[in-house]
Amino acid sequence: MAFLRSTFISLSKSPAMRRFSESSSLGGRLSSRFVAGMEIEDVLRAAEELNANGISATLDSLGESVGTQAEARRSADTYHRLLDAISERKLNANVSVKLTQMGLALDPALAYQIASELVSHAAGLGNFVRIDMEDSSFTDVTLDIVRRLRASDTGGLASRADAGHVGVVIQAYLYRSLADVEALVRDRIRVRLCKGAYQEPPDVAFPAKSDVDANYVKLMKILLQSGVYHGIATHDEKMIDATRSFVQEKGIDLKSFEFQMLYGVRRDLQRSLVSEGFGMRVYIPFGPEWYPYFMRRLAERPANVLFLARNFFRS
Ligand code: FDA
């Protein structure tokens, strides 16, 4: 299983496979299980459908590691258009942004500038920008940028639990995450807690799944007692059960946090948590640069390959 995971993660970084897959119609059909479509209109329609079922959304314009400033600016334009469209259509949705798509690997000052324009735009509309977390080479700079964005985030309508218009993601597989969560909670910064989707060496991340899971539960407990609105992002029923039990034990308000899941994953569980009264947000990716995202989803659950193949030959 670990071998398959690292194979898919390595494939996710292959430029040749990426070029081939993103340009093939077969690739487009397969990716539609996890990707809402290629156009802004597709992701807005998907968000509308989820909203109609009591589920909020976070919209992700796919792409990472741009090569030029112009590309970073173009990626940001898509997000500005998304923020306007969410507001015009009164969708219950925010946006999720990768800083490498905003030029982080080229120039952190550029990524900061672009992200700061997005957060100001979102703040003016009473909305929110989630900064996704990428591989561990970017953890420090991402957290640093989010702290600076949060410190200058004063404009617009107050958002949930007065915790601003920008938040970040913490990965439970990293050893450092306990210290990071404690600092973010002190700064009242909204966190999305996930397990982590990249291939990391054993000197930075827990190699054993049982240790990642134990750390996830530990971090979840700190977040849910912090008085800030956080996202508990997982499809793992053990993590969800641990959260449900903790909420009951401590009498935590169900509306003081939300569960989050990925588009196309465990839709049954999404619906059942909503019917129990929990908040649920679904992360909806769209756009032509779907390949690395799609391969990380296969890495998480190699059985998805069989699932996709069965559906493909059935249709
Ligand atoms: P785990 O991987 O242990 O899976 C538990 C069970 O969930 C599986 O047995 C299976 O039933 C189901 N499952 C999980 N993944 C599945 C899939 N792809 N297809 C079908 N079933 C699946 N990561 C990151 O590094 N940075 C980030 O910014 C984000 N952002 C993010 C947002 C949101 C809303 C979510 C839900 C996840 C992320 N992630 C992420 C990804 C995250 O780190 C992690 O890789 C996946 O969520 C899978 O971990 P689980 O917690 O689901 O558990």
What does this structure look like?
The structure is a single chain. With 315 residues, the protein is of the alpha/beta class. 51% of the residues lie in helices and 14% in strands. It contains 13 helices and eight strands. The chain has an eight-stranded parallel beta barrel with strand order 1-2-3-4-5-6-7-8, surrounded by seven helices. Helix 5 (69-88) links the parallel strand 1 (56-61) and strand 2 (93-97). It is globular. The two termini are 28 Å apart.
Mean pLDDT score: 91
**How would a textbook summarize the main sheet?**
8 strands, parallel, barrel
Structural shape: globular
Radius of gyration, in angstroms, nearest whole number: 18 Å
Strand order of the largest sheet: 1-2-3-4-5-6-7-8
Helical coverage, percent range:
40-55%
Distance between the termini: 28 Å
- Structure class: alpha/beta
Range of strand content: 5-15%
Low-pLDDT windows of residues:
156-161
